[in-house]
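Q: Please design a sequence for this.
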């Protein structure tokens, strides 16, 4: 199981930068995914997506991105955005991304993606964007700030992926609708201007939707129902102990229902003995508090090496910045080739 495999060795020295990826030689299929620096990374991000980023590094030519343009739709404080961008990059490195085996960069460091998004918007009917579930959701959640970026988000996501002609996209299932729309946008472009881009395909983990501490909605930074990976141990303990369990288990002696208890479900990813834990719940041998305490222990133990690496890297921001700069520089030949092709096909040359 990928979760219990030892963390890969890191090559974090950004100098010399890795050789550029030849633009005309996609010898291997490309994989791309982005993560927003919109808050602290949580176990939903890891179980649903990041562990696949790590696993796919060796199977595909993998490109991972901290999507700060996307985060601007909800984060408006420049210092907060800058800090979170570096923290998210640090988190990904600590969790196992290896700059010697993948490319990690910040979205705005290759601003050509904004040009490609604009070009994609000219093949995208507004009605497609208006029906996106996340747009409807954000419109309700932040009615005072329904900015245009929320509407055009899927076109930027499509541009993110295919600027690098990537076709494999590890994401959580909450991104399924976005990815479907990305495919439609790419198809619309290819129909109008001729075959240019591959249609991106989602790749899911065994935990495509991790529920939050409320046990109802997906774990999400903006909802605040998260179990953070790099928070102090006491904070992680508080977050786990606040989790909603089986709401029908009122008394300690009532049998539990592991199938509907989010704490029990999470145990599946933090140890091989989860069936025993479930059995304890079913027979009321153990109570919800015991099962939560055990989960805290397991989560802390599981992430201990990553937490250690995170602390080391946070103390060395120049190392992380170097990785990000080298990543953006490395992508330049691919971006230049894609944009030259697109401009030519669209009559901009
Ligand atoms: N609860 C989750 N279960 C499974 N996968 C998840 N992902 C996020 N939450 C879960 C996946 O993590 C990747 C990075 O997410 P993101 O930060 O780009 O955006 P998001 O999906 O919007 O995540 P959040 O935490 O909910 O952020 P906010 O609150 O800022 O919108 C994605 O692949 C995502 O599917």
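A: Design:
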């Amino acid at each position: 199981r990928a979760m219990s495999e030892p963390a890969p060795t890191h090559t974090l020295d950004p100098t010399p930068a890795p050789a550029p990826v030849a633009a005309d030689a996609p010898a291997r299929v490309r994989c791309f995914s982005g993560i927003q620096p919109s808050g602290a990374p949580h176990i939903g991000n890891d179980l649903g997506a990041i562990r696949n980023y790590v696993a796919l590094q060796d199977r595909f030519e993998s490109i991972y991105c901290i999507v700060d343009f996307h985060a601007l739709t909800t984060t408006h404080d420049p210092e907060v955005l800058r800090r979170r961008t570096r923290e998210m990059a640090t988190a990904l490195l600590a969790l196992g991304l290896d700059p010697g085996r993948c490319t990690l960069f910040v979205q705005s460091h290759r601003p050509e993606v904004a040009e490609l998004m604009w070009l994609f918007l000219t093949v995208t009917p507004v009605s497609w964007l208006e029906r996106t579930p996340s747009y409807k959701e954000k419109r309700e959640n932040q009615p005072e700030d329904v900015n245009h970026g929320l509407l055009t988000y899927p076109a930027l996501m499509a541009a993110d992926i295919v600027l690098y002609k990537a076709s494999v996209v590890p994401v959580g299932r909450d991104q399924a609708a976005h990815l479907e729309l990305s495919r439609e946008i790419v198809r619309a472009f290819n129909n109008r201007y001729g075959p240019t881009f591959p249609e991106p395909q989602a790749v899911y983990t065994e935990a495509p939707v991790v529920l939050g501490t409320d046990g109802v909605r997906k774990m999400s930074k903006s909802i605040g129902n998260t179990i953070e990976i790099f928070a102090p141990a006491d904070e992680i303990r508080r977050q786990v102990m606040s989790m909603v369990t089986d709401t029908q288990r009122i008394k300690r002696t009532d049998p539990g229902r592991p199938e509907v208890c989010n704490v029990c479900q999470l145990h599946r990813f933090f140890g091989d003995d989860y069936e025993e834990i479930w059995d304890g719940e079913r027979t009321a041998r153990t109570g919800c508090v015991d099962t939560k305490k055990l989960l805290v222990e397991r989560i802390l133990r599981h992430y201990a090496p990553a937490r250690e690496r995170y602390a080391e890297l946070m103390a060395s921001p120049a190392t992380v910045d170097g990785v990000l700069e080298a990543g953006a520089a490395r992508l330049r030949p691919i971006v230049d080739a894609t944009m030259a092709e697109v401009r030519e096909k669209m009559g901009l040359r």
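Q: Thanks. Anything notable?
A: The mean pLDDT is 91. Residues 317-346 form the longest helix (30 residues).
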